[in-house]
Amino acid sequence: MKLRALILCGIVLLATYQSPAFAAVISGSDVNIRAKPDAASAVVGKLQSGDRVTVLEKTGSMGFAGMYLGRWCRIKSGSREGYVFSSFVREDGDADEQFHVFFQAFAAANEKGDLNYIRSRTVFPLTVVSCFEGNCTDSAKTAATLELNDLYMKRPFMYKQEFTYEKGSVHLFYGYEATRFNLYFRLQKGKWVLYAVRTSSC
């Protein structure tokens, strides 16, 4: 009887437990506060860059909304309470680079042909797998042999950019002319870097 009571008590405690609230700062302009953890939910307020908030809890798992990587945070700012996507919430002491900030710079450098920046955000040797009609070849690119054609991110894309996140790695898929591109990124010492590329014929 006592054991059953202890188990029931434990279940109640687990059900009511919430992670501790923590302070954070908003890192974007006109950031929407939503009524529910859903991008289609009603907007109940807005926050500006530098606004201080209290994060009451984080909900769901990490994922993408467009090119923004994060999950929903239930926040409180003064008398306002609601949900904000974590891409725009910086926890005090968190120095990790936000993916969308990195990717905007990375894509712009690619379109401008700035190989120096691309190289600075790439792990070498870079694994590049090229597939054509089912036959694949592997190569290990160095900083000296990496070319823009290995990544070709110029528009218009044949396929819309798609981002997925799994086990700390970001997978980007897009198409250009007759080639499908798959780029893989991960955090390394707080910075996002490219660590693998796979291309295939359409």
Number of strands: 13
CATH architecture of the largest domain: Roll
Based on CA atoms alone, the radius of gyration comes out at 21 Å
Low-confidence stretches: 2-17
> What is the averaged pLDDT score?
88
Task: Tell me the helix content.
Answer: 10-25%
What strand order characterises the main sheet?
Answer: 9-8-13-12-11-10
Whole-number count of domains: 2
Number of helices: 3
Rough shape?
A: elongated
- Strand-residue fraction? over 45%
Distance between the termini: 66 Å
Major sheet: 6 strands, mixed
At the first level of CATH, what is the class of the largest domain? Answer: Alpha Beta
Structural class of the secondary elements? alpha+beta
Order of helix and strand elements from N to C terminus? HEEEEEEEHHEEEEEE
Q: In a few lines, what is going on in this structure?
A:
With 202 residues, the protein is an alpha+beta fold.
Description:
The protein has 202 residues and is an alpha+beta fold. It has two domains: 18-91, SH3 Domains (SH3 type barrels, Roll); 99-201, Nuclear Transport Factor 2, Chain: A (Roll). It is 17% helix and 50% strand. The strands form three sheets. The protein has a six-stranded mixed sheet with strand order 9-8-13-12-11-10. A hairpin with a 2-residue loop joins strand 11 (169-176) and strand 12. It starts with a helix and ends with a strand. The model is unreliable at 2-17 (pLDDT under 50).
